[in-house]
Structures are given as C-alpha cells and as structure tokens.
Amino acid sequence: MLKFTGQGTAHTCSGVTRRDFLQVGTLGAMGLSLPQYLEAKDQGLVDKKNDNRSAIMIFNLGAPSQLDTFDMKPDAPAEIRGPFKPIDTASPDINISEILPLHAKVADKFSLVRSCYHNAAAVHDAGWQMMQTGRLFTGGVNTPHIGSVVDYLRGRKTDLPANVVLPETMGRGGGNLPNGQAGGFLGKAHDPFALMADPSKPNFKVPDMLPPKEIGTARLERRKKIRDVVDNTIDYFESTEDAKLLNGNFHSAYRLMTSKEAREAFDLAKEPNKVRERYGMNRFGQCCLLARRLVESGVRFVTINTFLTVFNEVTWDIHGSKPFTSIEGMKNIVAPMYDQAYSALIEDLYDRGMLDETLVCNVAEFGRTPKVNPAGGRDHWPQCFTTYFAGGGVQGGRVVGSSDPIGGVPADHPVSPGDLAATVYHSLGFDLHTVLPGPSGRPFPLVDVGKHEIRELF
C-alpha cells in the first residue's frame, strides 16, 4: 500500500492498520455516494419526504431472553417463566419484566414485535449477519449492513460520515464468520466508520480525528498544501483504476479531521453533566448519548453494540456459567445499565422533537431457550424472540405478533430478518424494489421477494 510521510514521500509497506489507512488518505468507512443517491432520487427510489430521517440500531449482542424481558409467560411452569414478574407500563397493551422499570415509563413510545425468528444456525455470528443485513451469507456473497446500503444510496449530509458504529465493530462470536457490520459486496468504501474508543473514558478522543504524527496539525489546517503533497507524490497513481476511490477517501479523511462540526459532534464534554449521568456513565450509556449527538449533526445511521464479544464479558448471553452470564448477572448488571440508557435516549429524542425523524430499533441475534438449563441460564434459540421499534414513523404502545404459551415459536404473524430490514428501509423512505449492484455487477434486490415492512407498526 502507499503511505504518506511528513516529508511528502510515498513508499510501499506491508501490513495495513487504521493509522496506515489514514496516512494513505483512505478510510474504508468514508465513501462518498452522492452520484448514486441522486440517481436513486431521479429513479423515484427515495421518498423525499423521509430523506432527512436517520436510524439508530441498538444491537443487543449476546441476545436477551424474551421470557425474562419483553415476552413474559407468568402462567407457565417455573422452569419456563423464570424468576421475574411482569409489570404494567405506560401502554395498556404492553407488559414487560420488572427488571426494566424505566422501559415501562416510555412504553407508549415503542412497539414490540414478539414473533421474530430465523432459520440460521444458533450461533452468534450467523444471527449477527441475518439481523443486520436481512440475509445469511451464502455462496461467498456478503450482504452489506443496512447502514452501508443507506450510505451507498444517500451518502453523507455533512462532514460526518453517513454510517457509524459505536463503540467499535463486534469481536468474536465463536463461529469465525463475518459479523455483518461491513459494506459487503458494495465494497470497503461503504464500511461503517467505527469509533474504536470508549466514550465513557475521561480522556476520550476519536482516533481517526487525530492527525498522524508525521503530519502536524498546522499542516492539516492548510488543506491546499496537503492537496499539493498528494498531487506531487502520487501523480503516477492517479492513472490507475483505484485513483478516484483513493482521492475521494483522502478528502473524506481530512474533511473529518479538520471539521469543527465533526469535532463538536463527538465532543461529549459539551453535554451538561446531568445529561451524561442520565444516560449512565458507562460505555453503553455514553454511546447512546453520542448516537443522539451524531444523528443531530447529520449522521444517517448509527449502530450501537451493547457489548463487543460474548466471551469473558457480562452480556445478554446468559448460559448461566462462566465465561458467560447468569440470570442474576443480567438482572443486577446488564438490565439496569441498558434500561437507563435506552429510556434516556428515547426521552431525549422526544424532548428535542427528534423522535419522529429518528428510528430506534433494538435487535439481537436470536432469543433464549424456553426452558431454564441446569446451570440456571438459558441457551441460544433462534426459533422465537422479540425486537422493538420507536420513532421514525412507528406508532408506540403496540404489540405485533405473539409467541406460543412457552415463548418457543411464533403463534401468529411470524417476522423474519428480511422483514425487519425492510421495516428499517421503509422508515427511512426507500422503495423496497430498489436494486443494488451485486457481485460481478449483477442486480441484487434491496430485500428478497416476499419480504416487506411490518405494516402494523406504522
């Protein structure tokens, strides 16, 4: 790869790091897609009235137990219903677990889908693919993340990237499969911008907004001089097929680093302490606050990973024994953190008049087994689980679909990952008949035939 140094020279090097990408002038997450967006508009594939809508996808990595959170079965046997009781909420149609009392207060603003399922293997990575792209990767075809599709079709609105992942992309899931948080066949240019930092830390800084050591801040502020360095250094490269991508991403990287607007959007110190504390002074809480700030500043799609891996971290993956989490751990550690941050995000968006223009969807890779296992936990169960949506045109306080008496399979209105993806696209104003340029240039449908938005939500 090419690398620029402080002396304005270029040379090849082995091994690619995030800093190397920045030094080359390319950040994979920062592709510009205005031509595609304008073309889509001309073809009537973008609903202009929803053009300004954004989305926040909260991915509950590890997979919450539907029976202990949003699909309680109080009349089932003890080994099915678990230790928690249902409570009433702000919606007369919704009851949820007692471990989510702050969710109960905002239940009039979100709606549950209790009949989700998928047919992939009960491994985390497969579920990550399905739930973030609408498809399982087969035949060597990696489908792009929903946010990457939004980036491709609409591009950025401001100096900030169109598609962001907080706090970083998913780690290991145990299956050694792609996790679905990438541009897939749309290319690296549409990978999300990953923060790669913990916003709850006192010294929080965005790594890709820091200048490379070889190029001082003063030179970064002199954009023309930087452009001159590029022109003088890689004239020979600009005749190649990759030149336009390199050139565009070079400008995108430096646009981010030199943008006052971008710096301010990522600067959580501008928030009053009481607001930060309302979200929770932890990684997930501050990611939720940062997501609100980014959407407010023009980012189109933000994915928040509640956790980074299911190994040696207290997560929703409640198998009951180490290195996983127990039901008690979920009750005492995971649920309070999650409950606080989510309710703060919904209330904040609502109070700021942003909720109708911001879809907040909460998804996970699967559900948990109806029966508690011998270790006192629940295992993987893709046959039935709950997701939920707020804002972005969704009517709150509703329940769509239901599960059987033990929460094991959908009893009515089964909803697949493709339907969930279609719901997000519909909220954002995309025609579901849109066709993407797939592998080898073959047309690839935005969603598969027969998949459609969950109409009862709107």
UniProtKB/TrEMBL annotation:
UniProt xrefs under InterPro entries: Alkaline_phosphatase_core_sf (IPR017850), DUF1501 (IPR010869)
SUPFAM superfamilies xref list: Alkaline phosphatase-like
Pfam families: DUF1501
PANTHER family, A to Z: BLL7424 PROTEIN, DUF1501 DOMAIN-CONTAINING PROTEIN
The protein's name in its UniProt record: DUF1501 domain-containing protein
Species for this entry: Gimesia fumaroli
